[in-house]
Amino acid sequence: MSSKKVKLAWDDLIVSEKERRAMAEYLAFLSEGKTERESWKILESWAQKAGFIALDEVQGFKPGQKVSLAVRGKAGILAIAGHRPLDEGFRLVAAHIDAPRLDIKQHPLYEEEGLTFFKTHYYGGIKKYQWTALPLALHGVVILRDGHKVEIIIGEVDDDPIFTITDLLPHLAKEQNDKKMHEGITGEGLNLLLGHDPSNEAGEERAKSAILHLLKEKYGIEEDDFVSAELEVVPAGKARYSGLDRSFIAGYGQDDRVCSFAAWKAIEKIEQPEWTTIVLFADKEEIGSESNTGMKALYLENFIAELITLQNGTYDGLKVRRALAKAKALSADVAAGYDPNYAEVMDKRNSAYLGRGVVISKYTGSRGKSGASDANPEFIAEVRRIFDEAKVSWQTAELGKVDQGGGGTIAQYMAIYGMEVLDCGVGILSMHAPWEIASVADLIMMMRAYHAFLVYED
Ligand code: MN
Ligand code: MN
Predict the structure, then answer these.
(1) Which of 47, 183, 203, 429 could bond to 52 as cystine, CB 3.0-4.6 Å?
(2) Do 320 and 301 contact (CB within 8 A), yes or no?
(3) Nearest in space to 438 (alpha carbons), one of 313, 378, 352, 360
(4) CA 126 to ligand 2 centroid distance, Å
(5) 432 CA distance to ligand 1 centroid (A)?
(6) How many whole angstroms from 2 Cα to the centroid of ligand 2?
(7) 284 plus 341 within the same structural domain
């Protein structure tokens, strides 16, 4: 450890009334936004209330104009026009709203010995054993052949049923216990238990028929409709405070909805920025940012092209390139919180500690920084200065010990435009587990940090 005395985010922390209310909003955001679609829907409704207008409805991009772009209902961007022309650059905080989960397969439904199940395919980096024997909910959409969208949430209100994936009783788990942890529960073993009451059915596979009848009656879905569905199995239940002193927040999907929320709270306060201010909520980060809703798609670039055109009255490709290249961005994602229970995988001198404020990471990546967007020290110095001036507690961290693994996020897909970009988030305990833990003090610091970054004038 450095000899410098550790300053905690908690020390001298004066939480404003607004920030206190924001904590309650955050809990609701986590509880009600468990998929990328649900999260964007909440963010979009908040943005609408704050005066953001959909891109295809705005007339111009004069200072103070608020614009929103929805990307297939699964990602989105919010922007406020600055006093400076957009081609001089902009400020960006980009987070992601997808989270690890189990997706329902295309042919999911089957019956075995009177029990019916959904086959699942996991999304993102999960430890499979964590998903058995806990209450699960089903969220998502089914698009019928005629294009009609059926929205489904089962397992969140008190009289809803929940779902589970079974685990083996310890009495018979001798062989399972001898296996390596990642082999104890297999991907094909993650089958969601659906039902076993066949009493109104006749013929073959009565239990499965009963489930199909229920799906038809309650949701208008037939077996073939799963082909055009995005149904996600997520932990059931509400996010809540954790710890005797209520200093933690426990909830599903805080990677990266904690940063998404802080990014929203930062832009919510802004009306007339010097620089055009943008926050972005990406999908598909957990599986490598692919697809037309992931950060590798060009929606940010296209959005900037639209804004330049709105601002100038005509499309100017060079101005688009300049705006992107001169931008300054925080890639808003969480860091691995230092966990004394797993100290052996952490480098104590370069870890993210809960309660010590926001975390900046010069680079992520694996092994020799593979896949990292290694931030320029000139830009890091600028961000340090902004955070210090705003009295934000901050620390710097790597994911863990160099040889222990690694991970990447979306910074490199912003850096390709030439903009300056630095990873900045908070430390999380039990990252990617069904319930993740964040620090209340760190979240407050992150809201302040993102706001300070978006509004600073240089
Ligand atoms: Mn993340
Ligand atoms: Mn993640």
Answers:
(1) 47
(2) yes
(3) 352
(4) 9
(5) 9
(6) 29
(7) yes
